[in-house]
Amino acid sequence: MREAFYAAAGQGYQRAWAVFSGQTDLRWLRLLLRSGFRHCFVVIHDGARWILIDPLASYTDIAVQPVAPDFDLPGWLAARGYRVVPAPLCRNCRKQAPAMIYSCVEAVKRVLGVHKRGIVTPWQLYRYLTEQNRQKGSVLWEV
Hints:
The chain has helices at residues 2-7, 27-32, 73-79, 104-112, 122-136, and strands at 15-21, 39-45, 50-55, 60-64, 83-87. 30% of the residues lie in helices and 21% in strands. By secondary structure, it is α+β, with helices and mostly antiparallel strands. It has a 5-stranded antiparallel beta sheet, with helices on both faces.
């Protein structure tokens, strides 16, 4: 199934995954956010490169990963304890995103094109994306 998934990714074709972690450098987030869902970031595959977009508290890390195009980065992350969810990229959205406080969740929503005001925590974003995937029959990378 994964082979067919990657075969569909040709030059210029982008696929994205939202990645969720229980790690945080901000102590107060450990009190407020659900265990296992304290941070999120995005991995994009364009058919030739794996790009990681990680919105941190002090800066946003954007890096092309030094792995082969056919490397299973979502699977590799899932094997290391991250929850990895395929995420649709909305590139034909004409509606302006609502004004929200900047956070890792808001940054991931902007990359994906998700414009839901009620999604403010990693857990809420995870639930939204998993529901979208269930409706479409997508595979989740989870351990």
